[in-house]
Structure to design on (611 residues):
């Protein structure tokens, strides 16, 4: 890997803590808004971007985690009245945030 | 409840009785102990219409012989009450045949018992089914966990191979054509393996009704050159002649799912090489009137006629394969894919002489737009193509920039949004445009359409972060003027190769 690319990957990994914090804030906002579509937009956008960039950087585990959450969030209108589905979503979000918080 | 109510009613009606009424239904006399609930017939009632005394007799014409259906309350049962007019000096005799009512009671009781027995049996069956269902659900969960685990185990090393190969791609000198071809072949085959894992382990198998095809523009000459390169090595190792004869026009392009087309050819050619010890494997391909025809012919061991149909089924192999390894999945996969593509598959074979497999697949031609007016303000050279990238995630655009600039010698220009998109096209005169599909306030398909509407005629590649490209998205993107739709995760590191291919197709 050339130096610039290596540095770039390192910088990307260093941004994980910030990304975890952003996701947590957006998650809280969605919960406060009872998962209504308009309060989930920010979370969807963050997860979607992370799904794209983690794949692009070849970080498969993170990519798989975000893909799962992304898939659940796509169904948010149908799952927001389904406590079990919301529970699954929040468990996956929790795994994702933990991963971001502990991986560098 | 219904039966209880019925029984209570019938108990009051079971006394045999004979009533004499006149032709108008007026009570004359009676014999027996008939009662209507608490009402007993008495002498004061003589002369009154019987239906005013016993309401369920309303509507009976007492002047003719009739059989009157007596409807029980709440139960789906009837008993016939027989009225027999007898000439007894102007009076008719009306006889309530209570034995019929008794029969109804007995029948109802018997049915009630049978229903109870049936209900108990159903309860037992229901319990057994529930238990079986729970056991099956546990088995399914265990299978899913197993498949998910296996899938992960497969994915990890393949992803590593892809990652290292991408490093090789980025380090390769572009003039070293043979190494370039090898690393591209590794890249393509590793991705093919990943896709197989997705289909076999995650989606539970390849079947025509589950397949989502995603058409892209395939340059036929380039595709079959790649096939020739990919399989020449394996054929040489067995000292087989390997030919790939095509008769496509220069720059012939069709719309087809490239990945699945490749998957079918991999299976067919691999089988042909595996089951041929001497002689040749020949691939011929033609396209005419919307139909792509591919024939893979070999001089191998052949397939017994009795096995020709069987081998289209999963895990089925011909009887003469000996100890050659294989899962028996290859031809069944091709069978399903070709069905999903609305094509057909035919096999001719003679044992000991060889096999010929033909695929006919409908595929529309994709016409390359003619080059329009040349832009005057071109500032780049052919060696440094200008790549205009619209990508709202700075992490990704930084990666593109590094890979395309440092490793591939291109000039990437990144913008985070589609603002001033047309202006930017005019200013930079890009050789190719890379668009993210899911931008914050826009989408890449609309931007592609804008570019085409304003006369941009060079390649446009649409990138999406979803793991599988939706066929509708693919259709919309191609209709809007995108040249290719690609996945971000798997294709980003070979983006430079794809860009070069697109640029060379333009020349």
């Amino acid at each position: 890997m050339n130096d610039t690319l290596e540095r770039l990957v390192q910088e990307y990994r260093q941004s994980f803590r910030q990304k975890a914090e952003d996701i947590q804030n957006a998650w809280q906002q969605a919960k406060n808004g009872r998962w209504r579509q308009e309060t989930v937009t920010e979370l969807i956008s963050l997860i979607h971007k992370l799904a794209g960039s983690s794949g692009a950087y070849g970080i498969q585990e993170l990519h798989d985690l975000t893909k799962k959450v992304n898939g659940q969030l796509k169904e948010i209108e149908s799952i927001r009245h389904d406590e079990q589905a919301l529970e699954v979503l929040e468990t996956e979000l929790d795994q994702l945030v933990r991963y971001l918080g502990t991986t560098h | 409840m219904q039966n209880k109510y019925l029984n209570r009613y019938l108990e009051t009606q079971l006394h045999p009785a004979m009533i004499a009424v006149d032709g108008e239904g007026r009570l004359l006399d009676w014999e027996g102990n008939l009662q209507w609930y608490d009402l007993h017939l008495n002498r004061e009632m003589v002369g009154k219409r019987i239906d005013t005394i016993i309401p369920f007799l309303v509507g009976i014409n007492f002047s003719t012989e009739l059989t009157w259906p007596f409807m029980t309350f709440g139960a789906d049962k009837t008993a016939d009450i027989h009225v027999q007019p007898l000439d007894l000096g102007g009076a008719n005799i009306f006889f309530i045949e209570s034995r019929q009512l008794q029969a109804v009671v007995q029948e109802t009781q018997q049915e009630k018992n049978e229903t109870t027995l049936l209900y108990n049996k159903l309860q037992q069956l229901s319990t057994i089914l529930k238990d079986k269902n729970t056991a099956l659900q546990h088995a399914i969960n265990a299978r899913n966990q197993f498949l998910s685990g296996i899938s992960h185990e497969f994915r990890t090393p393949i992803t590593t191979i892809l990652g290292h190969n991408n490093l090789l791609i980025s380090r390769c000198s572009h003039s070293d054509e043979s190494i370039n071809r090898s690393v591209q072949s590794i890249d393509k085959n590793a991705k093919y393996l990943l896709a197989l894992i997705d289909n076999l382990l995650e989606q539970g198998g390849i079947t025509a009704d589950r397949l989502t095809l995603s058409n892209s523009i395939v340059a036929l000459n380039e595709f079959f050159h790649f096939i020739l390169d990919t399989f020449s090595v394996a054929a040489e190792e067995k000292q087989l002649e390997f030919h790939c004869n095509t008769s496509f026009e220069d720059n012939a392009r069709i719309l087809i799912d490239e990945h699945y087309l490749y998957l079918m050819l991999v299976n067919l050619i691999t089988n042909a090489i595996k089951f041929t010890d001497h002689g040749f494997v020949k691939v011929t391909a033609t396209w005419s009137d919307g139909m792509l025809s591919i024939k893979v012919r070999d001089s191998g061991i052949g397939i017994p006629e009795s096995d020709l149909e069987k081998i289209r089924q999963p895990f089925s192999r011909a009887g003469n394969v000996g100890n050659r390894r294989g899962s028996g999945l290859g031809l069944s996969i091709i069978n399903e894919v070709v069905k999903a593509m609305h094509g057909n598959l035919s096999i001719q074979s003679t044992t000991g002489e060889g096999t010929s497999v033909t695929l006919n697949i409908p595929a529309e031609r994709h016409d390359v737009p003619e080059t329009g007016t040349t832009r005057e303000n071109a500032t780049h050279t052919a060696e440094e193509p200008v790549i205009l990238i619209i990508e709202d995630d700075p992490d990704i655009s930084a990666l593109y920039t590094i890979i395309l600039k440092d490793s591939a010698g291109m000039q990437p220009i990144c913008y985070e949004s589609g603002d001033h998109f047309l202006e930017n096209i005019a200013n930079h005169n890009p050789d190719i445009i890379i668009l993210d599909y899911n931008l914050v306030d826009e989408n890449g398909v609309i931007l592609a359409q804008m570019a085409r509407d304003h006369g941009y005629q060079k390649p446009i590649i649409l990138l999406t972060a979803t793991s599988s490209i939706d066929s509708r998205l693919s259709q919309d993107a191609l209709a809007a003027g995108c040249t290719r739709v690609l996945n971000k995760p798997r294709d980003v590191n070979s983006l430079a190769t794809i860009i070069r291919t697109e640029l060379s197709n333009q020349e």
In short: Chain B has a mean pLDDT of 74. Chain B touches chain A through 29 residues (CB under 8 Å). The first helix of chain B runs from residue 2 to 13. Chain B has three domains: 2-96, 220-362, 386-506.
